[in-house]
Amino acid sequence: MSEWLWCVLALLPAFVVPVAAAWRGGTAGRLVAVQLASVLASFLLIALTFALDEPALIDLALCLALLGVPGTLLMTVFLERWL
Amino acid sequence: MNLAVGAFLGLAVAVCWLGAAGFARLRAPLDRVHCVTFVNVAGGLALLVAAVLADGVSDRCLKILLVLVVNLVGGAVVSHMTGRAVTQRAGGA
């Protein structure tokens, strides 16, 4: 097993923490948890592209990063005004 | 080379674990934003160095650099907006 696959497996418990935090708690806490989960998910995809030697996975990480920023900004506007 | 890659990957994993532990330990959303930034900056740099050591300067590494730049620049804006929203929600200025 390569060091990249070990990295993926080691990142999974750290990924569970923000996912569990996003599952429950207040709205603001959930929003921050989603931010951390998004960052860790992009790290997981980066490590997976090396572990599986699948170059297409890096495009998923890029899409996640590019779409995550406006998505989270939209959520902050909702949080600030209506939620 | 594999040892250096493993060392930087271990550093990235340690940073992510530390950030997740801090996230679980801190309760206030404004405090938790610091953990997100720490993971974003320190973990991303370690992962980028490991990728460059493993792959050299390639298309894949340039895309990783782009992901990290988007995460860093976007993360700063998103953190500011989140802090502002949380403060206004709490009845602050």
Q: How would you describe the overall organization of this protein?
A:
The complex is a heterodimer of chains A (83) and B (93). Chain A is mainly alpha-helical. Chain A has one domain (3-81). Chain A has helices spanning 3-23, 27-51, 56-81. In chain A, helix 1 runs antiparallel to helix 2 and helix 2 (27-51) runs antiparallel to helix 3 (56-81). The model of chain A has no long low-confidence stretch (mean pLDDT 91). With 93 residues, chain B is an all-alpha fold. Chain B has one domain (2-89): Helix Hairpins, CATH 1.10.287. Chain B has helices at 2-25, 29-55, 59-89. Chain B is 88% helix and 0% strand. Chains A and B meet through helix 1, helix 2 and helix 3 of A and helix 1, helix 2 and helix 3 of B.
List the helices and strands and how they pair.
The complex is a heterodimer of chains A (83) and B (93).
Chain A: H1 3-23, H2 27-51, H3 56-81
Chain B: H1 2-25, H2 29-55, H3 59-89
Short summary of the structure?
Chain A has 83 residues and is mainly α.
